[in-house]
TrEMBL record:
Domain Isopropylmalate dehydrogenase-like, residue spans: 4-350
Cofactor(s) of this protein: Mg(2+); Mn(2+)
GO molecular function: D-malate dehydrogenase (decarboxylating) (NAD+) activity; magnesium ion binding; NAD binding
Family stated for the protein in its record: Belongs to the isocitrate and isopropylmalate dehydrogenases family.
Keywords for this protein: Manganese, Metal-binding, NAD, Oxidoreductase
Protein name listed in UniProt: D-malate dehydrogenase (decarboxylating)
Keyword Transferase: no
Enzyme class: oxidoreductase
Catalytic activity: (R)-malate + NAD(+) = pyruvate + CO2 + NADH
PANTHER family: D-MALATE DEHYDROGENASE [DECARBOXYLATING]
Entry keyword Manganese: yes
SMART domains in UniProt: Iso_dh
E.C. no: 1.1.1.83
Biological source species: Saccharopolyspora rhizosphaerae
Length: 354
């Protein structure tokens, strides 16, 4: 079977790490004896495109993307364009219009990379943040310059949206995922003591859904306490389900604890399979290191492995993850995790280890 993939590297290190992931996928296809192939189409969208055209992506971009089996994304954002313009104009536009309501962000401690926790060397920690990806704090509701305020008195409103259906589907997704894992546990995260409307609804739905999964252990934790748990007792975690903003922050914390933002993979899934899903590293465009061949490609390659899972190529996905572990385990590391290797050297080692 041929899988059609849209590559959207976008900005900064996005281009470097998408090329890396693509090399790994192409090597797998080349060795598959024709069992599967990847047909790539490149899209030049991003901040450079915006500077030339005034648009982050083409007008009919969503229609064009609709027909692909998956989207492989780099990172969007560059200092020349305001971040809220670039993010909403490309990445969030795709996520929201393609109803990619489940964002899966594994936190995986690689061998050979020392965590600031220092537990990484002996304890192979592994948990997953499941992020509600369609509503919550990123619903885009609210406004500026609200009526009747003069200069110096502006009022802006940023409203969160929580729907019972939106909460329920992400929780069922988290519970189903927990059932596939060795540790069958879901931790639900809110700030429902302070945010007494939407997040209380979230808690109630969580309790109701949990009743359908008696074999799965559960807990409800406030986000401030959960950030402490990430640092102090990460071995207690298996699946962590949280709203858009809270999970965004927690997953960055998770990847930093694993050693670097450059390590973290993610999948923006439309579990209903009506629209293509999007696979991307968690990190941004890293303007501070862009264009120097120093980007850690592991997050992007891990995201390609999540894409393989999505295609039903689980065996290949496992091979890629093992090749990543073997590469870090051999001490071949980019500067963000304490090494001196370049992106290309890491990719070459991953290909060898495959
Ligand atoms: P960032 O993730 O780009 O960088 C944060 C730090 O992590 C930097 O020191 C960077 O060098 C390092 N880093 C990130 N990825 C790395 C990699 N692969 N290898 C080695 N080191 C890496 O976040 P920042 O600086 O807050 O944002 C930069 C731009 O990226 C902004 O325009 C922002 O809006 C955008 N952004 C886009 C995201 C996306 O497209 N999904 C996510 C986060 C930020
Ligand atoms: Mg983030």
């Amino acid at each position: 079977r041929t899988f059609r993939i849209a590559a959207i590297p976008a900005d900064g290190v996005g281009t470097e790490v998408v090329a890396a992931g693509r090399a790994v996928l192409d090597a797998l296809a080349a060795g598959s004896s024709g069992r599967f192939a990847f047909d790539w189409t490149d899209f030049p969208w991003g901040c450079g495109y915006y500077e030339k055209t005034g648009r982050m992506m083409d007008e009919d971009g969503l229609e064009v993307l609709q027909d692909f089996d998956a989207l492989y994304f780099g990172a969007v954002g560059w200092p020349s364009v305001p971040d809220h313009v670039s993010l909403w104009g490309l990445r969030l536009r795709i996520c929201q219009n393609f109803d990619q309501w489940a964002n899966v962000r594994p936190v995986h401690f690689h061998p050979g990379i020392t965590s600031p926790l220092r537990k990484a060397d002996d304890t192979p920690l592994d948990w997953v943040v499941v992020r509600e990806n369609s509503e919550g704090e990123y619903a885009g509701l609210g406004g500026r310059n609200l009526a009747g305020r003069g200069p110096g008195n502006e009022v802006a409103l940023q409203t969160s949206l929580f729907t019972e259906k939106g909460c329920e589907r992400i929780m069922r997704f988290a519970f189903d995922l927990a059932r596939e894992r060795d540790r069958k546990k879901v931790s639900s995260v809110t700030k429902s003591n302070a945010q007494q409307h939407g997040m209380v609804l979230w808690d109630e739905v969580f309790e109701r859904v949990a009743a359908d999964y008696p074999d799965v252990e559960t807990e409800s934790v406030l986000v401030d306490a959960m950030s402490a748990t990430f640092v102090l007792h990460p071995e207690d975690l298996s699946v962590v389900v949280a709203s858009n903003l809270n999970a965004d922050i927690l997953s960055d914390l998770g990847s930093a604890l694993a050693g670097s933002l450059g390590l973290a993979a993610s999948a923006n899934l439309n579990p209903d399979h009506r629209f293509p899903s999007m696979f991307e590293p968690v990190h941004g465009s890293a303007p501070d290191i862009a264009g120097r061949g120093l980007a850690n490609p592991i997050g992007a390659i891990g995201s390609a492995a999540l894409m393989l899972d999505h295609f039903g190529l689980e065996e290949e996905a496992t091979r890629v993850r093992k090749a990543l572990d073997a590469t870090t385990g051999s001490g071949l590391l980019t500067p963000d995790v304490g090494g001196t290797a370049t992106t290309d050297q890491v990719v070459a080692a991953v290909l060898d280890n495959l």
